[in-house]
Design brief:
The protein has 267 residues and is α/β, with parallel strands linked by helices. The protein is 31% helix and 15% strand. It is built from 8 helices and 7 strands. It is globular, with a radius of gyration of 18 Å. It binds 1,4-dihydronicotinamide adenine dinucleotide (NAI) and D-galactaro-1,5-lactone (15L).
Amino acid sequence: MLEKLLVTGAAGGVATQLRPLFADFAKTVRLSDVVAVDDVKETEEFFDCDLADEKAVFELVAGCDGIVHLGGISVEKPYSLIRAANLDGVYHLYEAVRQNGNPRIIFASSNHVVGYYRQDEHLDHTAIPKPDGLYGVSKCFGEAMASLYHDKFGVETAIVRIGSCFPEPADRRMLSTWLSAQDFARMIKRCMLAPRLGCPVIYGISDNETVWWSNEGTRYLGWRPQDSSEKFRDKVEAAAPPPGPEEPVAKYQGGVFTTHPIFKDED
Ligand code: NAI
Ligand code: 15L
């Protein structure tokens, strides 16, 4: 059991699914976000912290023995927003970690790091990034920071290229990319407690039938997903006709993210 687990991005969708699953894993869960969390439990504490504020992030990280870093911009947005949260924010986090005893980090990377691969291409942890937007590029930056701080300072990070972590898959693409919160929580616990973590790239998917990503390279961690999107297949397929094979949502791993323009502040 951890003493104090930090969860950034605590007001967001993924953290909201994960929080109940950490009750038996850490004595205290420190939640942080720029948006208030209104149902803070007895074993939780809330820090209002902008990841763009270096001093605040330093204070946030102090005293924590594990970090699940979910905070930041989670979709395609103008560069100024992405830079503050996903570039500056990640730099502040790693600097704070380095100066606070190197707690392990679970870094919420994204499938949009490899979004321009086609869905008929099979990837493993060695895949060269092909991001599908500035958001994906920012996650490449985060992955590179994890690698740098591991090699230079021994900070251990699980780089998790999350597919789609929602209560249910919303469309046919997500039948391949879906990650249940339960599988994600089991992965996080494994990574925090494994004798050796290192700095692996893990694809965040459940045990789905149709997948594009292999986690053979990280079997040493002992994480095996137990859920599958298959139980949602009939519902998803009944909801909409299949897209044509050349439509981005059916062609590229990143789906519609490949269609976004470069958004500007004034948009
Ligand atoms: P979300 O957008 O619901 O939550 C992100 C949280 O970060 C928000 O509550 C937001 O207020 C906070 N945040 C944004 N900028 C901030 C800043 N400057 N300082 C402090 N907090 C800030 O995203 P979601 O879906 O919960 O995703 C969590 C993480 O997982 C994100 O990093 C996202 O990129 C990543 N991810 C999520 C996937 C999914 O399927 N939900 C798939 C791939 C990656
Ligand atoms: C992501 O990276 C996003 O944060 C999430 O909102 C979904 O769009 C997910 O990828 C996805 O590709 O389904």
